[in-house]
Amino acid sequence: MSTLANTDPSLWHMAAKARRRMPFFAWEYLDSGTGMERLVDRNRAALDAVEMTPRALGGRFTPDLRTTLLGQEFSVPFGAAPVGMSGLMWPGAELALASAAKDKGFPYGLSMVANETPEDVAARAGPNAWMQIYCPKEPAVLDDLVARSKAAGIKTLIITVDVPVGSRRERQLAAGLTVPPKMNATTLWRVAQRPAWALATLRYGQPRFKTLERYFPKDQMREGAKLIGSIVDGRPDWDYWDRLRSNWDGKLIIKGIMHADDAAMAMDHGADAVWVSNHGGRQFDGAPAAISALPEVVARVGGQVPVIFDSGLRGGLDIARALSLGADFCFLGRGFLYGVAALGAQGAGHVYDTLRGDLENNMIQLGARLLADLRSTG
Questions:
Q1: Max Cα–Cα distance, the chain, nearest Å
Q2: For 75-91, what is each residue's pLDDT tens digit?
Q3: Regarding beta strands 329-332 and 78-80, do their DSSP bridges make them parallel or antiparallel, or are they unpaired?
Q4: Residue 157: beta bridge partners?
Q5: Which residues contact 247 (CB under 8 A, 6 or more apart)?
Q6: DSSP 271-334
Q7: Catalytic residue among 13, 259, 269, 279, which?
Q8: Which of 159, 184, 229, 356 has its CA 20 to 30 A from that of 318?
Q9: What is the distance between the alpha carbons of residues 113 and 96, in angstroms, rounded to a whole number?
Q10: Is the pLDDT of residue 4 over 50?
Q11: Which domains does the chain carry?
């Protein structure tokens, strides 16, 4: 277990510490949802409503958390989800997560719009590095990202399909978030209030879209987020998916599935796994809670491919809840970045230890020796 086990014992504590260390605009980017943020609340309420029944007299045992996903064995049934602009939360966050993924034995998904490259992340994470892509509208950009991922040794691509257009994130707008941040008096004042973040950023360098910079016109590099919109169309169809499938011989995951019919279509079109997600409440505020959509998707998939889950998970109990409803594997986005922002690079491993310990504890409470046993606790 982490040497930090007696400090910052939960993700809630780490989130509070992260908020005290991150500038206002960075916190608002990470923590916010879309619209009135009702879906963020629904994700939480629906997870809280999932009850599990403990079994008595289970004896002394240590739960076995090892699992195999897409032909690869991991030490736990959870990983670090792709999050855009992770380096804005804490400098070098992606590399810290990549190193922890290799050391601890969990997968880390690098976002296409994060602040490090697939080449550098794969060098740190080894076979535990996955790459997430937001469907570039230019075929040449897509082909190059696929080729770069393959050359870096990445074996698993995540294709995110639940961002047809960018959502209106009111808190981010109110915070005045731009990428890169505007160096005006307000931004400088906010940065000055967070000296640890400011010094770490000064040493590491301002966050940049390092993966995508090669596709930017050189005279427009400072346009940042505007250029992202010119690269990413965000509205793929099944023909787009089929083209990608034919060009990628590794594992291909479709992320952002909320409807069972879409899960069935994904399998028909060669998806190696289906990822149930409502983007953590950050895209469409009128969607159902992701955990509410999970059972129907699991039933339709029928064990033909793995079902992955994210959205709203905040601890080991939430992971157990998702597994009890049929998920094969879970991912957390905000949680891992809370840890890195709160504790620096060592926070990535500490979040893993915290989640692992919490999941083990809850499985013992339930009398579940194996992950499969969780499916009989609901």
A1: 68
A2: 999 999 999 999 999 99
A3: parallel
A4: 131, 252
A5: 143, 146
A6: -SEEEE--GGGTS-TTSPPHHHHHHHHHHHHTTSS-EEE-SS--SHHHHHHHHHTT-SEEEESH
A7: 279
A8: 159
A9: 17
A10: no
A11: 11-371 (3.20.20.70)
